[in-house]
Amino acid sequence: MPESPQVAAPSPAAGAVAWHVAEGRVTYPAAEAFMADRVAAIRRGDTPELVWLLEHPPLYTAGTSARESDLLAPGDIPVYRTGRGGQYTYHGPGQRVAYVMLDLKRRNADVRRFVHDLESWLIAALWRFNVRGERRDGRVGIWIRRDGGREDKIAAIGVRVRRWVTFHGIALNVDPDLSRYAGIVPCGIREHGVTSLHDLGLPVTMADVDVALRETFAEIFGPVQPADTDALGKIPGHG
After folding, report:
1. Choosing from 59, 187, 200, 212, which is the catalytic residue?
2. Which of 44, 65, 89, 154 is deepest in the core (most CB within 10 A)?
């Protein structure tokens, strides 16, 4: 078996990052509104950095580089324009979305390093299930080699940075309905497919994935702690 991916030492940061897993499914407009408020509060120093894990109902999002020709047949699935980088992607049940709200001024003020660390985080989490995720030059996200030389995407990355505070984040396919990707050209890439942990024959649960994400996040970005439920306020999916 190949060696485990190397994990870089965490960047220095002020305090532990708050960690919260939403209950139920969170609509995209509610998620965007919450992120905007939280990012502003982090920038002011009023609240800790946050990683927010959730699932969305079925939807497509169009990033700032999305081409109309890549929206093929959305059917009854809503399409949301968003300020994150990237092109079209799908979100839905069975996919773990992690919205990452960090203050890069505490983390070397390096956007490229941040994206690289997100990739490393996904690669390390996948390795917990003996899945080798890989980067590809010119193709955003994390990729899996399949039999016959085929390569499929298992995780997407799309971020935005506002005054050095990050938001949006990653989406890892655990067991989504992969047929939904037929309505778009995912991330503008026609030559490759999309996969998931279940599609690879790994019937892991969302809870399993959350544990792997939390442990590997701490290895790369530094310690985490449960979010203060009183401070979460009106966070969508907070029971």
Report:
1. 187
2. 89
Tokens (6 digits) for 25: 């499914």
- Give me the pLDDT at residue 38, please: 95
Residue 10 clears pLDDT 70, i.e. is over it: no
Q: What is the pLDDT of residue 192?
A: 81
Q: Which two tokens stand for residue 237?
A: 């999916």
> What is the rounded (10 degree) CA torsion for 165, 119, 214, 217?
-60
98 is catalytic: no
Decide if pLDDT at 13 tops 70.
Answer: no
**Cα separation, 84 vs 65, whole angstroms:** 9
Average pLDDT, the chain: 90
d(CA 158, CA 187): 10
